[in-house]
């Protein structure tokens, strides 16, 4: 029987391989067991936290790499343990899993430790090299045996002490991240004991591999959903090494895919040039989800699978709307503001959701989606305390779809309180000067500013909660009276425009520039604060509508059709099944009083999408069901004496 290495890798990085003296290969093992939903429980003093690791071949442990963010550093005792002989990862549950109970003690004897170590809160990996503390690699030879690397939190730390990403369970068990919680709290408090976390614990282990390693798969990207029909060419770089780091031989590479959770199909990949292998997935129907992974064998009988759960993408089609609304990691409340505001003003839009690791993540949209031939306006929001996914200061803008979209004349609006500081490498959460050639300078027209501005020394949050507009400005002119903005947490920024742009809002504190408007080959509005957190939604909605009108968008006319529809029609929603949003199209042969509502299986109205008089024409409305549970729903159109219902299925 061949041995298959199932190594779920952190999506933000690749395996690190390098030859070392002594005929060994350095290898960083890392896991990403699920989706992140902040704080399912904060470890407390005397809690034990860590990850159990599976060596890919005979190995010696070199070091542990740990990452902690702001306010999270402190003293801990680092350990390496063996696992108990009857260790079974299926015994451990995340604290948010229904009927989950604490598992048995997983750790057995100590291989190294206690090693006292003070972790900083820089947000970068800190490496604990065990040889520096009297544990050379030959003393930490684990062969192919699994082991547990972690730490016990010291008492007396000034701040709560938890990893930089701590979250809720994904769907696929077992998990590698385990923690003994003495007093579980956070979103899912529960009883003390050993619990798992379906997360990336931000803990890595560096080993020397002195056995024959399995093949390595890299340059295989998680693709975004696409507007491009298939077939889809999938390529990967696949390499192999023998014992000691010499060149090995890849004997076969396979592309394995399924469509809409159906049976899997295996395609033998073609070895093209160098270490590149390619395979093709055929065209699918609109709305169908594709899951794929790559497997590779070497001549020693090892098999690598990457990624274990596979990557997903869906073939979609635009609805015909001129506006693309991009939720870049914001929560449901933020999204509800935009969707309800657009619907209230009869703006048709398509919704795109970015949230790395989430089951409904559509990925950073490609140039087939962010396309000025499809959308005249993109509205992009990141929510509170979220950097978002727009290009940082090291990005190659010639390859970025958003930069290319703006270059093509597309209108762009961004509201974000954390993008500016997070775009720097490393992050800058103080006063800054923008760098020419970067996205913030060239496309947002930011010359300088302050991220996390006017901080309160006690709360650590921004005191900027009051803004006012500029008289006569097409966007902020009606709002010269100061208004309140209260995101939670509050990390609002201010920024000064480049010479070719205009200030459209100011902070009440020190009258700092806090909004940029640009008109040239394209139009752009940037607010370095959270629009959807304005206390008075009539103001925030008014600002949004002013932006759209300044962009030239019209929200009250139907989509163009060569002729007026002859009959009332209610089309089947698309996609169906869907998650989290779907499009509903209907046609009106003449002006009508229209109601379009969504009902659950108990015939209870759960959403009113349209409720007004509308002109004759064909319309498309988006229903965003992010806050609803999976199941069967019905949507009903009432227009004068016409009434029709259809069924749709929400699958999360």
Question: How would you write the strand order of the largest sheet?
Answer: 23-22-24-25-34-33-31
Q: Report the average pLDDT across residues.
A: 84
Count, helices: 5
CATH topology description of the largest domain: Rossmann fold
Radius of gyration: 27 Å
Query: Mind telling me the CATH class of the largest domain?
Result: Alpha Beta
The CATH superfamily name of the largest domain is: Class I glutamine amidotransferase (GATase) domain
Q: What is the CATH architecture descriptor of the largest domain?
A: 3-Layer(aba) Sandwich
Number of domains: 4
End-to-end C-alpha gap: 37 Å
* Topology, number of strands: 41
Largest sheet composition: 7 strands, mixed
Shape by Cα distribution? globular
- Unreliable residue stretches: 1-23, 33-41, 158-171, 556-562
Report the β-strand fraction as a percent range: 35-45%
**Structural class by helix and strand composition:** mainly beta
Fraction of helical residues: under 10%
């Amino acid at each position: 029987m061949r041995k298959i290495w199932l190594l779920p890798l952190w999506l933000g990085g690749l395996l690190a391989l390098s030859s070392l003296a002594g005929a060994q290969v350095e290898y960083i093992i890392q896991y990403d067991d699920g989706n992140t939903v902040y704080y399912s429980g904060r470890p407390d003093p005397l809690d034990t936290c860590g990850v159990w690791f599976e060596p890919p071949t005979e190995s010696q442990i070199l070091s542990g790499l740990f990452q902690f963010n702001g306010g999270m550093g402190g003293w801990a005792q680092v350990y390496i343990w063996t696992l108990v002989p009857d260790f079974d990862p299926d015994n451990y549950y995340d604290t948010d899993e229904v009927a989950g109970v604490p598992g048995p003690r997983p750790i057995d004897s100590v291989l190294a430790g206690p090693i006292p170590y003070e972790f900083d809160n820089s947000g970068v990996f800190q490496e604990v090299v065990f040889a520096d503390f009297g544990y050379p690699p030959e003393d930490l030879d684990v062969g192919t045996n699994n082991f547990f690397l972690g730490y016990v939190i010291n008492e007396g730390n000034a701040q709560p002490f938890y990893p930089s990403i701590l979250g809720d369970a994904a769907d696929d068990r077992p998990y590698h991240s385990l923690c003994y919680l003495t007093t579980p709290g956070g979103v899912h408090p529960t009883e003390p004991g050993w619990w798992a976390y379906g997360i990336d614990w931000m803990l890595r282990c560096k080993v020397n591999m002195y056995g024959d390693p399995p093949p390595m798969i890299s340059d295989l990207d998680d693709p975004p959903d696409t507007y491009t029909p298939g077939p889809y060419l999938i390529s990967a770089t696949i390499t192999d090494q023998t014992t000691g780091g010499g060149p090995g031989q890849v004997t076969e590479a396979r592309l394995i895919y399924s469509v809409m959770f159906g049976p899997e199909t295996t395609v033998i990949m073609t070895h093209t040039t160098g270490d590149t292998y390619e395979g093709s997935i055929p065209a699918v129907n609109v709305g169908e989800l594709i899951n794929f992974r790559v497997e590779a064998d070497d001549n020693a009988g090892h098999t690598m699978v990457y990624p274990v759960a596979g990557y997903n993408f869906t073939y979609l089609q635009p609805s015909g709307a001129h506006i693309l609304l991009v939720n870049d990691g914001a929560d449901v409340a933020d999204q509800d503001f935009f969707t309800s505001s657009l619907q209230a003003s009869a703006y048709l839009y398509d919704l795109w959701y970015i949230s790395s690791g989430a089951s409904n993540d559509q990925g950073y949209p490609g140039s087939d989606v962010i396309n000025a031939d499809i959308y005249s306006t993109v509205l992009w929001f990141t929510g509170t305390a979220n950097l978002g996914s727009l290009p940082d200061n090291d990005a190659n803008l010639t390859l970025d779809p958003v930069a290319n979209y703006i270059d093509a004349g597309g209108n762009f609006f961004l509201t974000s309180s954390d993008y500016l500081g997070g775009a720097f490498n490393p992050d800058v959460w103080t006063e800054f000067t923008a760098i020419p050639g970067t996205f913030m300078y060239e496309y947002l027209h930011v010359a300088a500013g302050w991220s996390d501005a006017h901080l309160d020394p006690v709360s650590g949050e921004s005191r900027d909660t009051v803004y006012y507009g500029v008289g006569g400005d097409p966007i902020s002119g009606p709002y010269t009276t100061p208004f309140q903005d209260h995101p939670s947490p509050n990390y609002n920024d201010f920024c000064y425009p480049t010479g070719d742009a205009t200030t459209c809002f100011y902070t009440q504190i020190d009258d700092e520039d806090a909004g940029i408007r640009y008109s040239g080959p394209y139009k752009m509005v940037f607010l370095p604060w959270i629009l959807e957190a304005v206390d008075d939604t009539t103001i925030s909605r008014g600002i949004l509508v002013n932006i759209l009108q300044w962009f030239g968008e019209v929200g009250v006319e139907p989509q163009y059709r060569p002729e007026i529809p002859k009959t009332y029609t209610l089309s089947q929603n698309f996609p169906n099944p869907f998650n989290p949003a779907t499009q509903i199209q209907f046609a009106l042969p003449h002006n009508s009083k229209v109601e379009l509502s969504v009902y659950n299986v108990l015939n209870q109205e759960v959403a009113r999408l349209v409720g007004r008089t509308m002109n004759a024409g064909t319309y498309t409305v988006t229903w965003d069901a992010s806050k609803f549970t999976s199941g069967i729903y019905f949507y009903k159109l009432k227009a004068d004496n016409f009434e029709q219902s259809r069924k749709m299925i929400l699958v999360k």
